[in-house]
C-alpha cells in the first residue's frame, strides 16, 4: 500500500493540508484553516495547516498527530492501516470515514 494512504484509507496526497505544505501555499493554508475551523468549531489557524502525511515521518497537523482517534488506534494496535485490522468492518472509530468516503475503503482493501 502506498505510504500516502492514511490509516483510515484517505489519500494524504489529496488533502489540502498536505498540498499546502508541499507547495508552501499560504493561500491554501488560510482557506483550509478557515474551513476546518468552521467545520470543527475550533480555533484552527493557517500556521496549524502543515502536514507531510499521517503514516510518514515529518510534520503533521495537531489533529492528525495527537487527536485523530483512528491514527492513535492503529498505532496502538501496530497495524499499517485499518485495512490490516480484523475489526475494520465493524469498527465505529473508522466507520464514519468509510461510510462517507467509498474510495477510502477501496484504498484499504487494496
Describe the protein in words.
- The chain has 110 residues and is an all-alpha fold.
- The chain has one domain.
- Helices cover 49% and strands 0% of the residues.
- The radius of gyration is 14 Å and the shape is globular.
- The model has no long low-confidence stretch (mean pLDDT 94).
What's the gyration radius in Å?
14 Å
Sketch the topology as an H/E string, one letter per element.
HHHHHH
Overall 3D shape: globular
Portion of residues in beta strands equals under 5%
Low-pLDDT stretches are none
Our measurement of the CA-to-CA distance between the termini, rounded to an integer number of angstroms, reads 7 Å
Largest sheet: none
As a percent range, the share of helical residues equals: 40-55%
Number of domains: 1
Q: Look at the helices and sheets and give the structural class.
A: mainly alpha
**Tally of helical segments:** 6
Number-wise, the strands total: 0
Mean pLDDT: 94
Amino acid at each position: 500500500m502506498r505510504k500516502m494512504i492514511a490509516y483510515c484509507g484517505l489519500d494524504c496526497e489529496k488533502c489540502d493540508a498536505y498540498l499546502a505544505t508541499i507547495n508552501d501555499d499560504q493561500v491554501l493554508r488560510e482557506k483550509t484553516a478557515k474551513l476546518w475551523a468552521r467545520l470543527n468549531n475550533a480555533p484552527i489557524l493557517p500556521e496549524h495547516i502543515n502536514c507531510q502525511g499521517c503514516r510518514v515521518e515529518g510534520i503533521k497537523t495537531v489533529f492528525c498527530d495527537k487527536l485523530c482517534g483512528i491514527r492513535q488506534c492503529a498505532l496502538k494496535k501496530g497495524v499499517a492501516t485499518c485495512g490490516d485490522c480484523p475489526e475494520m468492518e465493524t469498527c465505529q472509530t473508522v466507520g464514519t470515514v468509510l461510510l462517507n468516503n467509498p474510495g477510502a475503503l477501496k484504498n484499504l482493501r487494496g
